[in-house]
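In this section we walk through a basic example: taking a raw amino acid sequence and producing a predicted 3D structure, encoded as C-alpha cells. The instruction is simple. Fold the sequence below.
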Amino acid sequence: MRAPIGHFDDATPATERLDVLTGPVADAVRAWRGSVPAEQIVYVDTEPEWADTATFLEHYGPELLDRSANCVVVAGKRGGETTLAACVVPSATRVDVNGVVRRQLGARKASFASMDTATGETGMEYGGITPLGLPADWPVLVDSAVVDLPYVLVGSGRRRGKLLMPGKAFAELPNVVVLEGLGTA
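The resulting C-alpha cell sequence is shown next.
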C-alpha cells in the first residue's frame, strides 16, 4: 500500500498492524466505529530515534510539517482536583495551555503533564502519544485545523511508527471537543 501522505517505505492499514501498536491503541483501532473506515487509518513504520518533529521532517519530508499533529497531555487544576486531557494541534503550532485549554477545562491553572503522568496514564511511550486509545474519561481537545486536513500524521503510541488518519476521524474520537485556536503560532 502507498501512504496517502509522506514518503514511507512501509505503509499498512493499522487494522493489520495491531501487533506493533500499544495495547490501548490496538484496542481503539479494533473498536473503531467512526464514519471513516478503520482500514483508512494507516500505520507507517518509522525509526524511533527520528520521532521528534524536527528530526522526523528532516528524514521523511519537510512537507509533512503542514500535515502532522502533535498530541500532548495537559493537567488542569481547580480546587485540589486535577483533570487530565489530551490536546491535538498542528505540529507547527503550540498548545494554548493558559488560554484555550484552561478555559475549556474550567481550570484555575493548566500545565503540561509530567512525562511520568503522561506515559503512566496513557500506556503509551513519550514522543509517540496519540489521541487514539486514550483513557475513556479524558477530554480530547482537537484544533479545528487538524480536522480540516485530508490526512494527518500523528503518533502511534510508540516512538517507532506513526499513524496517518483522515482529519475528519479526529472529530469522531471519544470525548472530543473541536476548538478554534487551540494551537497558536
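Looking at the output, two observations stand out. Residues 104 and 132 are 20 Å apart (CA to CA). The chain has one domain: 11-184. In the next section we compare this with other chains.
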